[in-house]
Amino acid sequence: MSLLKKLSDKLDAILNEEEVKDETQQNHSETTNVRQKKQKKPKQNFVIDDWEDMDEEDDTPFLSVGKNIKMKSADPFFPNDVTAPEGPTRKSRIKSKRLKEEDNNGNKLEEVNINSNALPPVLKGLENSEGFVEAKMVELSKKIRELNAQLSCTQNKLKIAESRVVSQESIQKESIEPKEISEDKVAKLELEFKDLNDKYQVCNTKLCEARNQIQQHKHEIKLLNKALASEVGDNFSIHNVTSEGWRGRAQQICSLQQKVSELSEKLSLTSIPSIEKSVSAVQSFEKSQDKERIASLSKELEELKVQLSETKSKGDQARARVNVLSADISVLRTKYETLVSKNDEDNKLINTLTNKLAHISQKNHEKELHLVRAHDDQLAALNTELKQEKVKTDQLQKIVTERDARIKKIEEKLQACQQQECQLNPQNKNDGVVSRPQTSGLGSERPSTQQSLNNCSSYSQSIEVERLRLMELITVLNKRLDEERKTLDKVQDQLRVEKQKSAKLESKVNKMELERVGRNYRRPSARPDSLSKFELENMKDHCALLKEKCLALESRLERLRHEKEEDARIFVRMVEEARAALRDQIRKCNSYSASS
């Protein structure tokens, strides 16, 4: 049945291929016609209209040409009104080509057709003939090859005819004046059209008959497939059916009937008691075999039950183990997720802390540099002030020495004056009676000298007091200078210590950065102790203390600077007052010496 299906499928495929080839040829002819239309020039005395569309009911085309030469054919499918042109037109040639192709197709179908009356006995004889189907396949393949060869020949002929038509059209284009159509040509064309119509009708009838036969064959093939399936079975293959050792049901029934007859003859020849003995022996043997089988099967059942119980226990254990492992896996996943989140947070904290430490170290370094510069500036200012004060003290010491020298001179003068007075007193006593006016003059001078002496002694006392004050101030200033030097030394020592600490912190930070870059992943237990929060807080507190100390030192330096400025002002004021007092005393002494 499947072989017959294959045959029918091949026939359908052949028909489809022929239809496709016809369509391709039509398309090719249409394209050539379009090209010819573009190249064609208008001719005189006749007009060629296009084909009108085929009617859906009749499928009868109509051709109208310039001159009214009417032709009526007996074919109902052929157009009623046909006018013959002067020469063979393009559309008539196309129609003739189509008719020729249909005639060829009809001849091919006649060759392919199989007699419907001959098929059933052939298929009935399939039970006895084994290589019939293969022979039929070979014959059909040969016919298909012949048909393909004929198709190729017809295609070559069509190509040759198309080339001839193109050459004729080119010749017609070259001819300028149109030729008149003779009556002989018209008659020939009418005869050709009649022949073509007859052939077209014959082809149509053959095509219809072939299609009807194909449908009948398909229906018969389906019935035969059903019959074969009922005889052979649903799941059958042609290779098994067509093999040499295959036997049909009828042959198998005949062979079985022969075996039954042979066995019945053997039974009739043998005696009944021997048969009964053999039957009893066979039955006892079968019973013993059945008992052995039952025992072996019971043992196998027990073993299988034991295996089932073991497998059930193992399955329960495995399920419990799976549950425990799933719980452990869930716990480990949660732990892993928490560890990953902690690791990310720790990495973020490390990055932030390292950035903060770097920022703080930069700030501390900048502050230290600023403080060092400020301290250096202050030290330079203090050194300049000390130098100025030293210069001032040297000047004051010079002034004091000068004053001491002047005081000594004044004292010497006073001693000389006192000696003169002592010398003058006895002379006055001796000459008091004789020269009175002189006594009166000397008496007038004595109070003035005494006053001047008293004034000089008071001035000398005040000068000594001022000198003592100046010495006290100088000692106080020296003490303060010593204290400031000590404080500066302490501050410098603290600055050195802080620089060392900052250098250590920078080295630690660099090490931490190197470790962080070198190790992409670090466990929480493997982190360095320097990154603990406690030490970070201690570092922050230490930095805050350093800031407070720096602020305290700055405030102390400012206070000392203000005190020194005030002391310098007081000292300058006292020096100016002493200078003014000394100038007054010097002026008075000069005036006194001038008057004396």
Automatic annotation (TrEMBL):
Keywords: Coiled coil. It comes from the Eukaryota. Residues 137-206, 287-321, 372-420, 474-563 form a coiled coil. The keyword Coiled coil applies. Residues 18-44, 74-105, 426-456 are annotated as: Disordered. GO terms for biological process: cytoplasmic microtubule organization; non-motile cilium assembly. GO terms for cellular component: centriolar satellite. InterPro entries: CCDC13 (IPR038929). This is Coiled-coil domain-containing protein 13. It comes from Nezara viridula (Southern green stink bug).
